[in-house]
Design brief:
CATH class: Alpha Beta
CATH topology: Rossmann fold
Number of helices: 9
Distance between the termini: 45 Å
Helix content: 25-40%
Number of strands: 6
Oligomer: single chain
Number of domains: 1
Bound molecules: zinc ion
Radius of gyration: 17 Å
Structural class: alpha/beta
Largest sheet: 4 strands, parallel
Strand order of the largest sheet: 1-6-5-2
Length: 225
Amino acid sequence: MRCINCRQEIFSEEYLCADCQKEISLIIDGNYCAHCGRVTKAKETYCLTCKNFMVETDLCRSAFDYTKTAKLIKKLKYDGAKWLAEFFAKNMAKVYIKEELFADFITFVPMTEKKQKKRKFNQTELLANSISTIINLPVVTVIEKIKETPAQAGLKRKDRLENLTGAFKVIDKQAVLGKTVLLIDDVLTTGATAESVAKKLKKSGAKKVILLTACSAPDIYVKGE
Ligand SMILES: [Zn+2]
Ligand SMILES: [Zn+2]
């Protein structure tokens, strides 16, 4: 076995070597924003990012800090290292259980059909399916992405939100009505995507939307107002 992060040889069934385990620890074991789950300097305070912004998403939690796991998440997304989904899912499931995030079903942030054909898989769907097996909660596909959005990186939050107008559509309103939905995404940055999807789910009668991501950018890295 080799450590998935530094490739050093390890003699256990773990994904990470002892050094990387220390480096890549669960956010919930340290200080994080009580609402959006990002790394913060002090525990149980609200970060500046979500205080005035994340209004549709009731609660967010992430397994890891993006600054520590960027390499691994990029490998999963762009190099097709699908096996890494299992590593992230295992830790996301840990957070779900430890934080008692009870939901009625799991869903994931979709890609447009065109983009998924090109990439051949949707990493958020892989994460959702893998978590589903661990926590024994069904995955229901209730959202479709109907409009391609330009790359969000480098854009301000306001522009990101504008980009996403009309991008998502709820395709199974019956399944959503009165339910608590566990929404899976890979990375939480400004939260514009999650807010956009959560807004649609709430409009379709969802009681609560809980966002669970593989990693999140710490508060200080989120730019733009
Ligand atoms: Zn390592
Ligand atoms: Zn926050």
